[in-house]
Amino acid sequence: MGKVTPAKRKVETPSAVKALVDKIVATPCLQLADVFGPFAWTFGRGDFQHWIAVLNHFDEFFEQHVKPRADLELRDLTRSVAEPFPLAPCLWILRTSNVILDNCANRHMYASSEHLASLLAHEDDDVALGALAVLASATRRPPGTRSSNRFRADARMASRLAALCAGLHDGASKGGDEHEAAARGANNQSVASSATVFGQKIGANELESGNSCDVHFEFYSEGDGATRLIAEDVRAGSPMATASELVSKHGVPDELEFTLYARVRLAKLAATMRGAAIPTQI
């Protein structure tokens, strides 16, 4: 994965598209959000091959500002990251990539999915949702065609997507029912009114009162047999800091760290008004 290799056959790019492509590529990635407003599609039916230079320009941003970050790989979570993350340029790149993919054929050529997998671990909700939106666009059938999409997720991407899905629906079978825990009020009573966070129902009373939010997580440890984290209150602290503490406290295997992080994040969203404001987008 990485930069896109153009097809061997020459593809003629419309002049209006080429002008915009040249302008974007000539702009340093860190300045894109300042130079351009929200990206709007005005070119009719598109071809991904016309935009390869732009997507490769974006991939350079990911290589420089996403790939080196240990926090997005859930490594060394207890160590603070000295380099600040360029949030505005990243969001502009994700949203623009989404628009391009939504309007182009040959989107299976998109080659930056490994970086999107990393961004699924970003603590900013808009970045994580933006990465999911680009993935959704990359995997949908091209507009105006009946052909299937040839995009394939690698094992790491598939694992992270599965972990996000598991956090939404399998609490009852994997150590507890997050739906039930999130839908209780101060007196442990079910509440009728609710909001939706990443597809998860949350009671309105809990959103108002800020009751504690628990994570139930079960995993297998070869040394100790089955180990379960029960009723861990994750309301305080950031999702990444909390996940790091639980990993250290309970010896969670490396391959399950993202799964635990995803559970913690969803639980924290369930306990906040910010979480209630985030709709299900994918």
Rg from alpha-carbon coordinates: 21 Å
What structural class is derived from the secondary structure elements? Answer: mainly alpha
List the secondary-structure elements in sequence, H or E. Answer: HHEHHEHHHHEEHEEHHH
Shape: elongated
**pLDDT average, as an integer?**
75
The residue fraction in helices comes out at 40-55%
**N-end to C-end Cα span:** 23 Å
Number of H/I helices: 12
Walkthrough of the structure:
The chain has helices spanning 15-25, 32-35, 52-65, 87-102, 113-119, 125-139, 155-169, 178-182, 204-209, 239-250, 257-270, 273-276, and strands at residues 46-47, 104-105, 194-197, 200-203, 214-221, 225-233. It has 282 residues and is mainly α. Mean pLDDT is 75; it is low at 169-212.
How would the blueprint of this fold be written?
Layout: H1 15-25, H2 32-35, E1 46-47, H3 52-65, H4 87-102, E2 104-105, H5 113-119, H6 125-139, H7 155-169, H8 178-182, E3 194-197, E4 200-203, H9 204-209, E5 214-221, E6 225-233, H10 239-250, H11 257-270, H12 273-276
Helix pairs in contact: 4-6, 5-6, 5-7, 7-11, 10-11
